Amino acid sequence: MPQKEQTNTSKNILENLISIARLHWSRELTDDMNPQLEQTAQNISQIMQDIPDPEVEP
Amino acid sequence: MSNPYEMTISETVDAINSKNLSPVELAESLLDRIDRIDPELKAWVTVDREDVLGAAKQCEIEQEKGIIRPLQGVPVGLKDIFYTADMRTSACSKIFADFVPTYDATSVSKLKEAGAVILGKAVTTEFASSDPSPAVNPWNANHTPGGSSSGSSVAVATGMCTAALGSQTGGSTCRPAAYNGIVGLKPTYGRISRHGVVPLSWSLDTVGILVRSVEDAALMLQVMSGHDPLDPGSAAESVPDFLSQMRNTTHSPVIGLIKDYFFDTSTQEVADHTQGIAQKLAQSGAEIREISLPQSFGSSHACQRVVSNVEAAAFHREWYKDRADEYGPKIRRNIEMGMLISGVDYLQAQRLRRQLRLDMVNMLAGLDAVLMPTTPTPAPGDLNTTGEAIFQAPWTSSGLPTITIPSGLASNGLPLGVQFAGLPFAEGSLLGVAQWCERVLDVNMWPENYR
Prior knowledge:
The structure holds two protein chains of two kinds.
Chain A: H1 3-24, H2 27-32, H3 34-49
Helix pairs in contact in A: 1-3
Chain B: H1 9-17, H2 23-41, E1 44-46, H3 49-65, E2 75-79, H4 106-113, E3 117-122, H5 150-157, E4 163-168, H6 174-180, E5 183-186, E6 206-211, H7 214-224, H8 242-247, E7 254-258, H9 268-283, E8 287-291, H10 300-323, H11 329-340, H12 343-363, E9 369-373, H13 393-398, E10 402-409, E11 415-421, H14 427-441
Parallel strand pairs in B: 2-3, 2-4, 7-8, 7-9
Antiparallel strand pairs in B: 1-3, 4-6, 5-6, 5-10, 9-11, 10-11
Helix pairs in contact in B: 2-3, 7-14, 10-11, 10-12
């Protein structure tokens, strides 16, 4: 995936994660989670980038 | 004869079987050693002197009758996530603070059947995650002993027990083993039952072995391996004679050296050290082939973290609902992240893990093992961390077996290790390669203040 597209994907994932986190927890607690949310967004972005062969099952 | 606390499992068993060492005297000497040095090192949570001496006395009665068992009288420590009947198993957490199991973990039962004397429960990071434990690195108290099997590693490194059990979900066996200058074995996923082990992540958790020699790792693996219907992740694979397979590896091994990622991510000192080890092995007859990692390696860390967090969240959800504040900050955040990850992303991570395993197996074709540094640096001088698990996580994620052996000291006096990985369920040949290298390198280290 081109670099810019990946960055955008990671940013979009982070925004989604923050939205869901705010449904669970207070804004203050969610703000405290920001480093872990960023890491999780990067992890998910990486996973979305590396698509396994179609026949590979979990 | 060496001091009892310095003896390996095989030396201990030989001494007991030849009646040159009494199991009770051995247990007493280690209990005294724990009393003397553990107040500084903080490696143990629970040691029940009466229980230990009772079990040792039983071994002595058997010794007098000439009964020989593979681990007769060998004192073993257990990471405090292994269930022990009538003995507290707290996972070093507030949540499990008063939990006393009614049965032993399958691995613990097998150790007892083999004659081992359970010395006690060793300190772990909370729930085997990444909040640092109070255990102290015996090489330098200002550096982390690693985690999560920190107490088990410190106890073996300082001769407070002859062997110990740990576990690995990311890097929790081989990393603390390297930081403390001992041997650590993470077998193939499914080789040793996790029934009766407090889980962190069901599809990653693997029972680990912490010892002072490769042969000792084989002895421990032999008695604990095998299918257990009580563990859904347990493999039906038959259990070979690991010792014979290890000893039959008399040829000079063909070893793949992985430089990309493992050298790039290490300090120059660690990269140079590992290169030097490879040269030494080559000079002794090993064939060293530089190899490259598969593309799927790139997402292996992401997959490991996503899967680990989701499964930890699933296990802890009920406790978390009411007792979130009782968790340490790092395990708590991991649980919270796991709650946010979608089912699709979790399953995609699991699919990528399957791809990684296939690719790693292909990478090992024609090789006896692959070699890399165990850790990118020696134990970090930051007690807020347990160090980096990045050189273990891909192997844990793909389920392949790994072993670390001590390989020398860094310029700051801390231990370094090299790690070998092999094919799934081929621990015998992996142990054979590791023992061949152990003999070539001839490194046996002991922290000076605890000799």
